Amino acid sequence: MIWLIFLIVLCELFAATSQVFYKKVVDQNGSHHPLIYISDYFRFAIGILKHPLAWAGLGFMVFSTIFWLMALSAGDLSLVFPLGSIQYVLVLVGSKLFLKEKIDSMRLLGTVLIATGIVVISIS
Amino acid sequence: MRGPLVTDNKKKLTLSLFLLIMLTDFGESLSSFLLKKGVISTEIFPLSAEHIFHFTIVNIGSILIWLGVLTYFFNFFLWMRVLSKLDLSVAVPIGSTSYIMVPLAAFLFLHETVTPLRWIGIFAIILGIYFVSRSKTANDGTKVPEAS
Fold first, then answer.
1. Is B32 inside a domain boundary?
2. CB distance B89–A116 less than 8 Å?
3. Residues of chain A contacting B135 with CB distance shorter than 8 Å
4. Number of domains in chain B
5. What DSSP string describes A70-96?
6. What is the reported pTM?
7. In a domain, B109, yes or no
8. Which structural domain range is residue B25 located in?
């Protein structure tokens, strides 16, 4: 039971880490430029693939998925799915700490509502 | 003295970005579906090189697996495009639309009953998405005073 919770927390922590890495990648290589020509699309994709953090993020995502599948096969689904919504909280903390995003009360309230809604849906 | 109008559209949630997020949600479900449909399970526990090799050989020829991987890869770039335009703390919560689309589709098209508790959850998520989309970002087109 305890180790199952630990596994899910680790899974969501890895998923959130991977998201923070992805965001760092697109922030650093100017990926927001408009995509008009085919060459723009290629430049966008190659710019991402050349960034080491993109690969680190994918690696974290792979492990997160493995942990998730392990949790699903080992545990009670009515515990695993609701606990999965801690990812939203972790992403919020990661965005604040590592990406210096401004989290106002609207965003905080909205994210908490979404996480709560997911818990309610998965236990009902 | 007023500074320049910051028209950095990097941070604004537009309808097309919202639809793009829903598309990535759908792509994620599609890729899991293809992988799940395509995978032929073999014994991989206890983990050993031999077991993993056997698993790889059995599955490497599956078209469904390759379609799933391709979908995943394509979806990854779509998601990166979303992230290049929005704050992470906006994009991730709004990416929860799949939690409401599945029960809503089941209700609308398969006439499955949705329990009252589930309706409450759906409503909470919709309200949450609305709040997140209305939240302020550092650069959302407002005028900022110029640093002397």
1. yes
2. no
3. 103-104, 106-107, 110
4. 1
5. HHHHHS-HHHHHHHHTHHHHHHHHHHH
6. 0.84
7. yes
8. 15-134
pLDDT by residue (tens digit) across B78-128?
A: 999 999 999 999 999 999 988 888 888 888 888 888 899 999 999 999 999
B61 Cα to chain A: minimum distance (Å)? 21
Tokens of B13: 């949630």
How confident is the model at residue B139, as a pLDDT?
53
CB A115 within 8 A of CB A86: yes
Interchain pair B124, A117: CB under 8 A: yes
Look at residue B36 and tell me if it is in a domain: yes
Using one digit for the tens of pLDDT, what is the confidence trace for A48-87?
999 999 999 999 999 998 888 888 888 777 788 888 899 9
Q: Which residue in this structure is represented by tokens 């927001």?
A: A32
Q: Is B5 helix (H, G, I), strand (E, B) or coil?
A: strand
Q: How many CB pairs under 8 A join A and B?
A: 133
Nearest residue, CB atoms, A114 vs list B77, B129, B135: B129
